[in-house]
């Protein structure tokens, strides 16, 4: 025996229709909710403050302070006396310095200008008349004789410092000095690897004899001179 279902009992028959109707109702409710506008209630009465006019009150008037009038100006003297200066002022007359055509022009003789001697240094290599070492007066080549006598003087007075020998110090000391305008030695400067060697080089130069000063254009000048002294252990 087959079971037959009653068409009225079918619940899914109009489900799609009900779904569409429900969706339309929900959308209508949401739209109305979004479009809903509310307004604040306004008072129909005047909210202005009831201020009573106090125009009827009397305002007291301030009294004006009276200032005293300014004092009158002093009276002018009736008679003005004019006092004359007793002292006489001498006027200063300024004479014109311009010369006229009638005045004679005095010729001025030549003025002699004295030359001021300046202390200048002329290097040994370029000086006209080199300083003369004692013993080179009669030599024709005084420059070569000067260098020869300098080497002879250094070899004669050379002495190696004992402390430098013990420390094993050796090297070259550059000595610079100036032959003054009177032939004396001055301005001695040294530069070397050790102070003991520099001291010995200064001692050798200090023993140089007085020389004939060098001349430039017939005038005695200072002549700088430099020479190396080599200290070498045997």
Automatic annotation (TrEMBL):
It is a single-pass membrane protein. This is Outer membrane transport energization protein TonB. Belongs to the TonB family. One of its GO terms (cellular component) is plasma membrane protein complex. One of its GO terms (molecular function) is energy transducer activity. The chain crosses the membrane at residues 16-34. It comes from Maribacter vaceletii. InterPro entries: TonB, TonB-dependent_transducer, TonB/TolA_C, TonB_C. GO terms for biological process: protein transport; siderophore transport; transmembrane transport. Residues 145-234 form the TonB C-terminal domain. It holds the Pfam family TonB_C. Keywords: Cell inner membrane, Cell membrane, Membrane, Protein transport, Transmembrane, Transmembrane helix, Transport.
């Amino acid at each position: 025996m087959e079971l037959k279902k009653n068409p009225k009992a079918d619940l899914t028959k109009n489900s799609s229709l009900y779904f569409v109707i429900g969706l339309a109702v929900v959308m209508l409710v949401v739209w109305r909710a979004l479009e809903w506008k509310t307004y604040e209630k306004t008072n129909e009465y005047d909210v202005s403050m009831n201020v009573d006019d106090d125009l009827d009150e009397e305002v007291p008037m301030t009294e004006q302070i009276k200032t005293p009038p300014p004092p009158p100006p002093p009276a002018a003297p009736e008679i003005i006396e004019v006092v004359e200066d007793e002292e006489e002022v001498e006027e200063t007359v300024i004479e014109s310095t311009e010369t006229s055509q009638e005045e004679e022009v005095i010729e001025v003789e030549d003025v002699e200008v004295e030359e001021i001697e300046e202390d200048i240094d002329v290097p040994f290599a370029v000086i006209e008349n080199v300083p003369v070492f004692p013993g080179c007066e009669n030599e024709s080549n005084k420059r070569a004789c000067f260098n020869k006598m300098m080497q002879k003087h250094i070899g004669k007075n050379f002495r190696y410092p004992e402390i430098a020998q013990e420390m094993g110090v050796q090297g070259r000391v550059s000595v610079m000095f100036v032959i003054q305008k009177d032939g004396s030695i001055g301005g001695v400067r040294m530069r070397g690897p050790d102070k003991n060697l520099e001291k010995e080089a200064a001692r050798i130069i200090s023993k140089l004899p007085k020389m004939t000063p060098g001349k430039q254009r017939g005038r005695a000048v200072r002549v700088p001179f430099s020479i190396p002294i080599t200290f070498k252990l045997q």
